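Chain A, query sequence.
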Amino acid sequence: MGHKVNPICLRLNLTHNWRSRWFTPEKKLFVQYIQEDRTIRQMLRKELAAAAVARVEIERSPDRVRVLIHTARPGILIGRRGENIQRLQEAVQRIVGTDRQLKMDYLEITNPAIEAQLIADSLAFQLEKRIAFRRAMKRAIQQAMEAGAKGIRVICDGRLGGAEMTRREGYRMGKVPLGTLRADIDFGQGLAHTPLGCIGTRVWVCKGMLNLKGRRGATATAQAQAPATVKAAPAPAAAAVTPGAQEPSPVAPVSP
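Chain A, predicted structure.
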C-alpha cells in the first residue's frame, strides 16, 4: 500500500524550511503559539483572497513577532497609501497581544506560474466560475511548463462536471520525482465550493534539482574525499663510533 506524504514535510531542512520558526520553554506557550499561528494564517488568507498569497511565514522571539507574506500582487496587499497593510497589522497585533512587537513584511513572487499553491487556488477559482475542469487543468500545465517548470502534476477530485458520482482526474507533464529528496518540489492544494459540492485541487511542481552537498553531509563527504596524510618517522640517531673500531655489519631480516 502506498503512503501519501506531503513533499514539503518530507524535504524539511533539505530544500524547504519550516513555515513557523520559534522555540518555547513551556508547554502552555507551545499550544498558544500554534493556535495564534493558525488564526493569523486563516485571517490573512481570508482578507487577502485577491492578493495571490502563496504562504505565510512566522518567526518569534521572546518579545518580537515577524510575519512574512509571500504574494504575487503586493499592490493589493499594501493598498492605497498603505492603508490595507496597516489595517492587517493592527488585526494581527490584536491576535498576538500588545506586549510583543510586531513586524509585518512581504516578499513579491516574481514567477507565480510555477507556485503550486497559487496554481491550486487559481484552479479552484475557475471551477467556482463554472469553467470546464479539463480546460483549466491543461491551461495551468501549459503555463507552468512555459514559465520554466521541469514538471507538473495536477489532480482534481469531486463531482467533476456535475456528475452524481465523484471521481478523480489528473494530468501531468515533465518529470515530478517525488522520491528524490534533492528535487525542488512545491506542493499546494485548494478547495472549490460549487453548488453541487466541494472539489479539491492538488498541484505538484518540480522546479529542478538542487545540490545538497553544502547543506547536509558535507563534512563526511569532505573527510572521505580528503587524501590520507602519513607522518614520516623520525630518522634514527647515528651511533657513535670509536676510532679504530669496526662498524657493525648489517643484519639481514630473518623470516619466521
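The longest strand covers residues 197-209. The two ends are 63 Å apart (CA to CA).
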